[in-house]
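[job 4471] stage=fold_predict status=RUNNING
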Amino acid sequence: MLELRSLRYLVTLSRHLNYARAADELGITQPALSRSIQALEGSFGIRLFDRGRTGVTPTTAGRRLIEHATALLANADDVERRFRETANGKSGSLHFGMAPVPARALLAKSLSERLASAPDIKNDVVVRSMEALWPMLVAGQIEFVVAPTSQIPDAPFIRTESLGRFPVSLMTRPKHPLMTEARVGARYPILLSSHGFGPLSAPTDLMAEAGGAVHVIEDFDTLIEVTRNSDAVWLTSAHAVADELAEGTLGELPQRATMFTGDFEVAFISLDRHSQSPAARLMKHSLQRQLSALARSIAKKPASV
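[job 4471] inference complete, writing structure tokens
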């Protein structure tokens, strides 16, 4: 069986047409190179080079083998490069899922970062509720899920790694009545991005205080527009609408007007029996960086009054 090393010796000699110079490039002795070429010739029963006083010249059969060897080595080098890129998280494909709120807050910037550093990675991202993502994770259709820890089913075969915490926030239009005073008896529609966000907020309690019905709308653009143009109260996280808060197109209810306070943990969830791919680990680190940066930027802003 042909060895790539022997073919590399052959091609190097064909470039230099001199044993001494070829051996020097390869970092081996001239006799070792000569034995390798002789072994190739013995394997095929043909002469590959004609020897002269000043060097060697490929035979007709030698030229044909050199052409094939050059192409084979180029393919082998490409395979090695792709393996290294895959091992470094710079090549291959990555399939994962995210719940709506962390996706809205983190996904765009993390993907932009990864596309810049690893443009050959093929990302396949599903943004859905944890209820929809869970069976895809268990079936191996996606490698990991990013979601609130409170939404993770009780299962012994998962690995959960915290990415950080998200504040629970109530968003309204900037001039919403609740921005200035508590309106006892007023009825305000309640908006959620998914049913899975409910356990964090106890929407039935929210209904009791706000008096409005709960509406689940999975599209964030629609949620933003409805909140801007109505008296609806959107239960989400300030992290998910940081740009809108900075622009002043949405407002966060002041602490004294909110019915729910606190935060929730968001985690990187994968199957414990599966090793994480290099691309998955790099995406995890990117999401952690984006969340840390987002938390710092939110912390620097003055509190609502």
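[job 4471] summary: The mean pLDDT is 84.
[job 4471] exit 0
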